[in-house]
Amino acid sequence: MKKKIYTLAILSLGLFATSCGGDEKKQEAKKGPAVAVRVETPSGADEHFLTASGKIEAVNSANLSTRMMGYIQDIRVKVGDKVKKGELLISINNSDLQAKRAQVNAGITEAEAAFNNAQKDYERFKALYEEQSASQKEMDDQTARFEMAKARLEAAKQMKNEVESQFAYVNIRAPFSGNITNKFVEEGTMANPGQPLLAMESPGTFEVMARVPESEISRIEAGTEVDVIVKSIDQTIAGTVTEVSTSARNTGGQYLVKVALEDTDAKILSGMYASVRFPIEKKAETTQAVMIPEVAVITQGDLQGIYTVSSQNTAMLRWLRLGRTYGDKVEVLSGLNADESYIVSADGKLFNGAKVKVNE
């Protein structure tokens, strides 16, 4: 019994020493040099006009697929290649289709032979009938045989047209001139009906699909001139509203607005995120979305938050409730106000309570 009590005493001393050691490390960190940090306020907090986030897309773009099932035999392009309209891009194994075409050709040959014989008999009986050497019934029978042979030949030819049209789905060609932007399959894999194989687009003409909240959509009209801000290249491009959606059923309560971009020398690419600034003053009661960069978010398990600067110039971890992601930014639903600053980057490791120095 004494041994057990003595052992517990030693463990208690060890835990006390460990705890003291951890507190001492934190105290030493607080006494150490302050970590230089850079702070920002959420984007959109001081804007007076309606701004919506969107993505740049090529006006002419397509995902190429097939209606046939088969193994991919040959892929003649790679991502980034320029192709011309009608150029062969992918070949799918078509041995079954070739066998079917051979059968159809054989059927056409047989139908043509039957038609030729029926036509000769029809012409012979027609001449005999005109000379009154054949009865009306004999003439009617030969006419029926001739029409049936003619119909069988036409059906065989239509069958051939159907088979030939299916070859368009095993030999995938470019529907327009452009660039290959994505490849979804590899040679030897199975292609299924409707499965995307390649993505391509025609560069040069772009548009932006922006999402506008329901509180503002009624104020936006087609033909409105807007500014499109592309932050990744730090340029503003003029645009015009071409379409305004009247339903948000499939877009999570946000209405889609299509903006056509004017011709520009800016190096814009499909997929870049942009902000569309409409010449409409925000309503006084409208609450602007609080947006912060994803790189500033701290994740611990299922919790997400950011570091702010306390009144004692120390880092203070604050947990947030986040919403949708738009490009490199994420929406803050609660936990941070639009006029509050947060730490976006630091020159050292941060922890809750660490001394910080804000860079101007």
User: What's the CATH C level of the largest domain?
Assistant: Mainly Beta
Going by helix content, strand content and strand pairing, the class is alpha+beta
- The CATH superfamily of the largest domain appears as Efflux pump adaptor protein, beta barrel domain
Please count the beta strands (DSSP E, at least 2 residues each): 21
The helix content is: 25-40%
Stretches where pLDDT falls below 50 for ≥5 residues?
1-22
Q: Could you give the order of strands across the largest sheet? A: 2-9-12-11-10-13
- Which sequence of SSEs, written as H and E, runs from N to C? HEEEEEHHEEEEEEEEEEEEEEEE
Largest sheet entry: 6 strands, antiparallel, barrel
State Rg. Answer: 37 Å
Short recap of the structure:
With 360 residues, this protein is α+β, with helices and mostly antiparallel strands. It contains three helices and 21 strands. The two termini are 64 Å apart.
